[in-house]
Amino acid sequence: MDRIPILKMGRLLLVTIQVDMHDQLAITLQDDLTERIVKDRAQGVLIDISALDIVDSFIGRMISNTASMARILDASTVLVGMQPAVAITLVELGMALVGVQTALNVEQGIRLLERPSD
User: Fold this and answer.
1) Which ranges form a coiled coil (predicted)?
2) pTM for this one?
3) What is the residue range of 37's domain?
4) What are the residues facing 45 on neighbouring strands?
């Protein structure tokens, strides 16, 4: 079974999606990521989607649901590297990605996650 690597960077987890996501891969990633948040006591999750040209409604919901699960597990989520076409598609699909912060690149995303919460 294919898996997307999850890298630990201090108290953060980095997920770089570099393959076309299909439904089963998305579900596996969600399961793996929530397990790693608990195991590593991660305070933040950075999801890099810069390699994705297309995001459908299922993948959009998966990202939003993963962020909700991370929040319940006391971790923030930042989505980085979104292509303009992906942003347009998400808006057209009516996907708000509640609880997901966005940044242009990994460096900005890390800064968002390392910022002290108020």
Assistant:
1) none
2) 0.89
3) 6-114
4) 13, 77
